[in-house]
Amino acid sequence: MPTSHPTDLRPGDAYVQSFARGLEVIRSFSAAAPRQTLTEVATRTGLTRAGARRILLTLQSLGYVQSDGKLFALTPRILDLGFAYLSSMPMWNVAEPLMEALVEEVKESCSAAVLEGGDIVYVLRVSTRKIMRNTLGIGSRLPAWCTSMGRMLLAGLPDDEVRALLHATPLEARTRHTLTDVDAVLAKVQQARRQGWCLVNQELEEGLVSMAAPVTDRAGRTIAAINISGQVNRTSARVMQDTMLAPLREAARAISQRVVGA
């Protein structure tokens, strides 16, 4: 059944503006702005101070926001919204033990993500005990075009959709290795589609190498991706491909098979 994109709906077309504004207020909080004044929330959301205040006080009365009288911050209860999604998707329950087994075998971190617009959103992560600069958790977002899971997920789309997403995204160099040309990135996406896996070497962050494989549904459509990530000073791209690609693809196949049976 086709679904409407949020931007397709307008007031009068089942679009609840006050609800949308409430979500914008929630999304205005981030790692860079964990605590905000009323004025800061209003500025970040484009709301009036009165409008932002009404929404913040509503969220506070529901237990999603707390305030010391000047600064507002989200409460842990906000996690209920994300966990409702995770708990409604049985695939993550079956994926976690398989990802844990993969991490035990390859001794590198493993994550799962889905595509949302031009970003990937992390839905599951199993880390090693090794300390890495790239600390990501459930709900973290990264650009799809320069990440292994992102390119793997883009590979599940037709080329015209991929090209449109790339043209709508600022392809800014994250490192000296980052591809910033639309055709070059599209070629990498096409390569990932042909071979059924994707490796990105230090394009997102210096020293970070990552390799991803697709999770598919019973129709063969890519619905998620899992990856292995590590540091090149410990595991080079060549070593990762030679020694970890087979276990990664087997884990992705096993998750896909269990999702079909879930």
Automatic annotation (TrEMBL):
Signal peptide: none annotated. Residues 77-261 form the IclR-ED domain. The keyword tRNA processing does not apply. It comes from the Bacteria. Keywords: DNA-binding, Transcription, Transcription regulation. Residues 16-76 form the HTH iclR-type domain. Pfam families: HTH_IclR, IclR_C. This is Helix-turn-helix domain-containing protein.
